[in-house]
Amino acid sequence: MSEPRPSDRHDASQPDDTFEEIVGEETQRDPDLAVIEAGSRTLRTYAGSPQGEAVPARPTDPETDKALRAVEQELAGRWGETKLEPSVTRIAALMDVLGEPQRAYPSIHITGTNGKTSTARMIEALLNAFELRTGRYTSPHVQSITERISLDGSPIEPERFIETYEDIKPYVEMVDAQQPYRLSFFEVLTGMAYAAFADAPVDVAVVEVGMGGTWDATNVIDSTVAVVTPISLDHTDRLGTTPAEIAGEKSGIIKQGATVILAQQPVDAAQVMLKKAVEVDATVAREGMEFGVTSREVAVGGQLLTLRGLGGEYTDIFLPLYGAHQAHNAAVALSAVEAFFGIGAEQARSLDIDAIRKAFAAVVSPGRLEVVRSSPSVVLDAAHNPAGAKAAADGISEAFSFSRLIGVVGTSGDKDVRGLLEAFEPIFAEVVVTQNSTERAMDADELAAIAVEVFGDDRVQVEPRLDDALEAAITLAEEDDEYAGAGVLVTGSVITVGEARLLLGRG
């Protein structure tokens, strides 16, 4: 494992010169805007290329595409991600017959309600910056199933995905035959991820839970770092009806002697997490106490941050993502990586600032306030619960100066749809309700009935087909010269966002 470099004071003479030159070139513009523009462009010079191909297209080779579709069809024939039998019995049996691949590398385990995938991507980018081979397992995917398993910052190649499935398939069938229920879709994918990481091999795995914690299929790893992003109400039929109950389930990822990186939480959820940490002799680092966001400014293409980590302060961080929630995710990710390297507990030092800047500046998070079209601007955000919708609404209001915003909303039927719509009501001039192509999608007419109660009849349009909904929203945004600065936000579900991304030519 490569040792992280101690923090050296960066010789900023050349970037400072560049900064001054850019400001000088912008004398015809508002001075404050010129400084922000210059800061963003200067900090981008620290960045390498963005992380891999975040959302891969279908394989170009017909035979590979055919084989991948066959694997997808076999996986789809299993229990879906919303049908659960709460135990880790089956996944533990699979790990046993595979030779415990999940114990071949250390791991960072992430739970919470919102922000898990973005935080995982940031952690991965930071670890890559210190020359560690990484495996990342996240869910759900935006467009391609191969996104869920990443190696060194890029989705696993389709050929390797197929090969991994074929390699473990006999063992999956063996476990199926021994258990009352077959392994689920998510359990098989988890087994594939852990096997792929061991085969690579990776130096560290970054693993996002699917749902909950204690009985989540990912929870057969013994992570030295447990990350808990903000907890709010979601999956209440399975996890509990209060933040405290949900925290009780999610606290199951905290293992004996681990370090817990705890994002800002509701008081009752934080109490549950702290109690669990005491029970297993874990060390806790709390956002707002041991680490946090010191300062944040909107910048062109993202935001400029100063973060306080476990090892000190990290200044001039450019993050090419929008919203205060992403700044907080960045603080959590940084502290998780510091904890992984033993900083704050075993060692009193900082990570190399240049590596940190370069990593953050290269982060991508598809479907999270992602701009996929201009004139008019179309933004995608995978918010699917009220807390996520509130974060997205705040983020788009802060980062974009739309004169008028049209919403395209397609949700799943098992979500707090009214709460989500209420979070968006203040920022949507009009909303086009629709549905995605999956069985979980809420019927567009049913969604419209709730939307009318929230927005009023004159602000709601119904277009059951997503392509028609996108066209209608773009037409509304373009229809009047008065609203030349209008935009469109597509939201409500990761699936809706993924399908919209394909329809808009980003697949």
Name the structural class.
alpha/beta
Q: In which order are the strands of the major sheet placed?
A: 4-3-2-5-1-6-7-8
Span from first to last CA? 35 Å
Alpha carbon gyration radius: 23 Å
The average pLDDT value, as a whole number, equals 87
Q: Can you count the beta strands?
A: 17
Q: Which residues form runs of ≥5 with pLDDT under 50? A: 1-52
Helix share bin: 40-55%
Biggest β-sheet strands, sense, barrel: 8 strands, mixed
Structural shape: globular
**Percent of residues in beta strands?**
15-25%
Q: Determine the number of helices (DSSP H or I, runs of at least 4 residues).
A: 17
Write the layout of secondary structure elements.
Layout: H1 13-25, H2 31-44, H3 62-76, H4 89-97, E1 107-111, H5 116-129, E2 134-137, E3 149-151, E4 154-155, H6 158-178, H7 185-199, E5 204-208, E6 225-228, H8 236-239, H9 243-250, E7 259-262, H10 267-279, E8 283-286, E9 292-299, E10 302-309, E11 312-319, H11 324-340, H12 353-361, E12 370-373, E13 377-380, H13 386-399, E14 405-409, H14 417-424, E15 430-433, H15 444-455, E16 460-462, H16 466-478, E17 487-491, H17 494-503
